[in-house]
TrEMBL record:
Name used for this protein in its record: Glycosyltransferase family 2 protein
Superkingdom, natural source: Bacteria
PANTHER family in the cross-refs: GLYCOSYLTRANSFERASE, POLY-BETA-1,6-N-ACETYL-D-GLUCOSAMINE SYNTHASE
Pfam families (UniProt xref): Glycos_transf_2
Biological classification of the source: Bacteria, Pseudomonadati, Pseudomonadota, Alphaproteobacteria, Hyphomicrobiales
Residue intervals passing through the bilayer: 244-263
Similarity comment text for this entry: Belongs to the glycosyltransferase 2 family. WaaE/KdtX subfamily.
Keyword field: Membrane, Transmembrane, Transmembrane helix
Stored SUPFAM superfamilies: Nucleotide-diphospho-sugar transferases
Presence of keyword Transferase: no
Keyword Transmembrane helix: yes
Residue ranges annotated for the Glycosyltransferase 2-like domain, each copy included: 20-149
Amino acid sequence: MTRLSEHRSPTCSQPLSITAVILTFNEALHIGRCVSRIAPLVQRVLVVDSFSTDDTVSIAQAHGAEVVQRPWVTYADQFQWALDQMDIETDWILRLDADEYLEDALVEEIRSVLPGQPAAVTGLRLKRKVIFRGRWIRFGGLYPTILMRLWRPGTGRIEQRWMDEHMVLTQGHAVTLDHDMVDENLNDISWWTDKHNGYATRQMLDFLQLEHDLRPGDATLETQRDQAGWKRVIKNRVFGRMPLYLRGTVYFLFRFFLLLGFLDGRQGFLFHFLQGWWNWMLVDAKIDEARRFIAANGVDAFKQHIRQRHGYSL
């Protein structure tokens, strides 16, 4: 671990006892927006960087963030390391991605409701609003996506998965706030498709975990009776058992027509098509390829192949 800085810039509003944790790699386009929007709200902004080669570190420092660097393994591993190793002493922890930010109304809501929460409330869920190429994706089941993003230290942990990792409370219960957190990535479509190609590989690994003992699984979220828990149950027990290549088509049609994704306009069509159909066709192609490899060479050879090809240790 390399500690790069530990300083904050003064703010005009009294911060709450919150540590914001943000993971980064080459997020110069977003990190300034993210940090500047939350700096007046929180006592500490902790950026855990995976040795970015752009100006991410200097921009984060310029906005008052504390930056540490650590090699990347997985998102879940990196985030849990931050929770365990970075001496977080505030009353609450906020999880944000670099391309996310809190709307002003949500900042004010957190200021209003957080100090008065009883001890039994150990987590606050936030509603995520996705903006794609300038368009708010309101339909297709995308809004609101409700996520556990603010919790008391020691009351939750992050799932150890390759993809779609969630914070899961281990004690107490959560409430959902009214206003929005925004997910707005400003990179171009080439970057977006490259990112989702990597996501598809990790989705493939999570699905293969249901078929082979690649590494210990984590089914904790399936026991949670909230939106995230029900989505995981459907994904693993219904969607995950559908025939390859069919499910992406069914999912896209369901999102685009039954869940009214067509109301999101031209940019919405592109988003639903790429994220709802192309992405899952790619996941299925990778699963198909992996199954063929395992049938011919065995699980141990597949683990070695994944380590050599993608750098993932199974």
